[in-house]
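Bench notes, bay 3.
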Amino acid sequence: MPQPGTLAAALAYLPHWQQDATDAAGLEGVLAGWVRACGWKAAGFAAPTDGLAKSAPHPVAIDHAELSETFQRLRAGEPTVVVSAAGGTSRVYAPVMCPGRPLAALWAERQPNFSWSEADHAYLATTAKLLERSPLLSATIGSTLDPDRIGIRLADAGVVAGRMAHDFDNILTGILGFADLALPMVAPGTQAASYLAEIAKVGQRGIGFTQQLHAFNRSGDPKPTPGSVAATLSREETRLKPLIPPTLKVEKDLPLNMPAVAMDAGPLQIALGHLFENAVEASGKIGYVKVSAKIAELNETDARAFLGKVSPGSYLIVSFADSGPGIKPEVRKRLFAEPFFTTKMRHRGLGLATAYRIAAAHRGGLQIEAIPAPGTGTIVKVALPQAVSRPSISTPTPPPASAGLREESVNPETTTVRG
């Protein structure tokens, strides 16, 4: 067995990062073993946006200013960052990046009066990359997803949804048509008339559902005609006004003269409408919904924090924050991975999936995070490329033949359906 504190011992410990773990406590055990193998003083993992900070073999309090400056330097592209700590020690941070999640960091602290070599920096960076692919990370911050696999899975689901919607449209047309023909043949106010009216109502609800299926099927088609976020949010707030309780406060923080985004008004309204409505529903009767937007120049690290097709460039980031109970870890693992997954009664799980497909098709993406303690709720951010300097939009590469057939025809587009 290699002697603790040697390079051989540090390298021999690397396979432990791939072990299975069922909860965040598993990470603490691996960190403690890592410290012993490397002969360090302490090590830890930090994801500030989750309010999460794990360290071993003992708790380590790190100043907020240190974390803020460190993450700023890591986002700027520094491969590792070294900072001085109390008692003559020093810490080295290495970035941990996963698609759709904000930047996190793995850090290690040496015993007093020991400096970090270039080999130490390289070893820590390698370990952080290993952690990105480790089951430990999923157990700690929630499921990490592959955007390419999500894209293929949702494309398959979209084809099935489109064909089902087409068949159900034909069935529902017959039901509604014969109900309308039969209604004048019965006396008004009779039981038969009330039955026919109920059949018509149910048929209309079915039409609404097939419209959602058609919208989901079409959501993978890019339409980069410039669209206005401010006008879209105004329309959606008006549409949702009957659903917003008087005790629920809607706050908006939108910059003046927001640039147009590279997304047509139709898909833009569908995507933002789903996210806005989700935030309202999550907040319940008492609380708040905060809608904000900002212009951002995203670098490579920033772009990877969004799940989708975001690349470095100029974006408009639109955020929807709610004061609800938040997303449970077991629920988060199923988001996007299961296209029709939902926890809501009378919903079909199409809203978030449709918003994601629309954003990704237009070279944008989504980020979903818990609001840091002591607050509660969820914040969903959508990155929309600016129309004036957007990344090039090309027709998405069709998935392999095994991914399923494409729908041959679609119905006219509607922009008022919701999941």
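Next record in the batch:
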Amino acid sequence: MTTTNRSTVSNAAANPLRALREHGQSVWLDFLSRRFIADGSLKRLVDEDGLAGVTSNPTIFEKAIAGGADYDVSVQDAQRRPGLDAVGLYERLAVEDIRRAADVLRPVYDATGGADGYASLEVSPGIAMDTEATVAEARRLAKTAARDNVMIKVPGTAAGLPAIRELTAEGVKVNITLLFSQSVYEEVAEAYLSGLERFVAGGGDPRRIASVASFFVSRIDAAVDTIIDERLSRAPGPGEREALAALRGKVAIANAKLAYRRYRRLFAGPRWQQLAARGARVQRVLWASTGTKNPAYSDVLYVEELIGPDTVNTMPPATVDAFRDHGQVRDSLERNVDEAERVMAALARLGVSIDAVTAKLTEDGVRRFTGDFDRLLAALERKRAG
């Protein structure tokens, strides 16, 4: 986490990160490492910037564990435990970090009545297509972490949907990840609601349950812009060229705004009101992949345009620093929704299927996390052998 170029702020009101809370949005950090916790960096972000949570995934842990010597002592200590394979070793290291992060965030959890203050730990990506294995591992990780303010990340795949329903019904707090599609998001919200209803019917207190649906943003623009550039390289006619070029950097935000409109509809009406009357919490939309990938776009684009109530933005470290320095805070999420509809309609007219794009992004996301996880296990084997 870079902190050397931080802007000096005289008070909380001058800090754009803190100001987001006034608009209903929590800031989580999409980064975690042992050193980051141990040297006080995480606590400083909580105290100074109002950070309210952290998320992790196999890519983050691969960089943290394989990228230095911070975990070597723990790896060597684990050598004295017979029968602990590389997967078990990874889990041991990851759970230790998640527990420590959760402990730093516990005051936030207490102060917000359990709305914020979470650390998220993901199930193994290799079981993303296996419902039973996902449920079993998520259940076990939640028990092993043994912290009220830990969420278990489950991918929003076809196999993940029934797992979300089952885990919620059991009282496990779930962070659903790798969401790109509006229709899949709606299925995820439905799974949460169904699980919550089962939990309440079984005598559970819904005030204990919290969940977020992690809707990915910048990867949409990266994928669609690539398609646009390829189409432009075929030298289309002037009208088509202008129409294609006008969609660059517009689709991800439009897609997210329309997903949020679905959230507004789903968490309203008699069904939700019955749950809310018992103390149930909405499943907040969490904007993920909010680091800008195209240097031609603003480095705070996917924060500034998606600010609204009942949301979380989980930012990578560089985006945290950038938004603290020059972010502009305003209620933006429910503005220009008609324009978002026009963007998506124009995309369809030009023959680009958003459903095909989002399906491929989900597959690529699982594949990427699986590859990073495999590299992590290989690095742990090398550390153990060394």
